[in-house]
């Protein structure tokens, strides 16, 4: 068996499992965040359910750690109250990103299973564990029964051969992989990564790569744990941890041999994480802001790289640099090492730990016409604000903040680029014009809405600024309001209509609202060539018809 098959078999009643089988699996860690969490509580209360095991059940408040949004504050209080009543542990707004925290605290280690309302829960693959983002119905079931159903995925093996170039970071590696595989060629696969160089990857580097498995459409990206990972997890868990490894005769659906020595520093162009290019193609693109953080790149190694580049330098005039550590432990470590002083001296804004810009609830948002370079995992339209977002490594992000335009750490100019008032005015005029053009939808007459696009993600379907909404009746009005050309979909759609799209519908987040908004509008069904894995199971759990066509 492969790694994922062994883990799932170990947590089921079967000795062996095969791809395509649907099984019930024991969930070792069941967590809900401050988005999704209130709906989990609602399902449990409405159905008079009990908590299976409070020692395996958690709340993590990371999407709005400032508590600055009224609806988030209300929802956090709902979860806190429920947690007090049921003796459930909360990692509150002072702790940081839940997936990272659960690894730090020793709850996540090789071989275990974990689910949360975070679509990047597959970050657990960095330590050789099974992690999966799921909707609030699944999480409520796990809180109550300790188990959920799961379809055993096929596994792909990727061998990274050759020597890694010195100027290629972990973020560059995953952007190179996105360039090769795109957003849906590995859809619903588990991926195992091997190679001499991968054995040298640190925990922080593995986290960066596994985190963006979501953007490749994979169920999970797994690294076989090496001694460093086992020692780290054993120390955190307070017991000796053994890894789970694939059998020598494990059956893989496909095997890819890739020469890592050919990898180069890359950026994702605005709009699609998988639309990646050699950084040379984006070189000298002027920026307004830069963001270092997210569950992909808010680790201590990322902050050290940033500090090394920023020491003795200033951000370019007019450029705002925002830095958000992944967890409070990392934040404190950065303070002890003097990194925060370097950031502040350079003119950066440093916030408390959390998801930041990715969650639309904290530092990191941008406005119309604004160009941002970010270490985030997604740059879907509207994901980090109304501007344009390039994705890149921490070194590229801070180097660009100093230069005033996109560049590499070894090519920072002596004098930064600056904006003229005319350039800024033109930028905003173009953004306003683009927004106006997007108001004109394309429509196929009749009962079918045909939207000829691939990779329509959950932020386009139901934007994260509405995640605090828990009433189904309120969700419909926001359906597709972040999908260019279909912003008025909710006003025009009629009960009984059907939506037809292309590939990979519902990629991205685990939010249940992206399904429920269509139910609220009376849409009968969605037809797509393929679906994001979490979206597919959320639809099934909500008894909402989704149909696959070729």
CATH architecture of the largest domain: 2-Layer Sandwich
> For the report, how would you describe the main beta sheet?
5 strands, parallel
How large a portion of the residues is in β-strands, by DSSP E?
15-25%
- Uncertain regions: pLDDT < 50 for 5+ in a row? 440-446
Structural class: alpha/beta
Our measurement of the CA-to-CA distance between the termini, rounded to an integer number of angstroms, reads 30 Å
Give a brief outline of the structure.
By secondary structure, the chain is an alpha/beta fold.
Structural account:
The chain has 18 helices and 22 strands. The chain is of the alpha/beta class and 550 residues long. The protein has 3 domains: 3-262, Aconitase, domain 3 (2-Layer Sandwich), CATH 3.30.499; 266-432, Aconitase, domain 3; 448-548, Aconitase, domain 4 (Alpha-Beta Barrel), CATH 3.20.19. Helix 18 (533-541) links the parallel strand 21 and strand 22. Mean pLDDT is 92; it is low at 440-446.
Which structural traits does this protein have?
alpha/beta, Aconitase, domain 4, 16% strand, 3 domains, Aconitase, domain 3, 18 helices, five-stranded parallel sheet, 550 residues
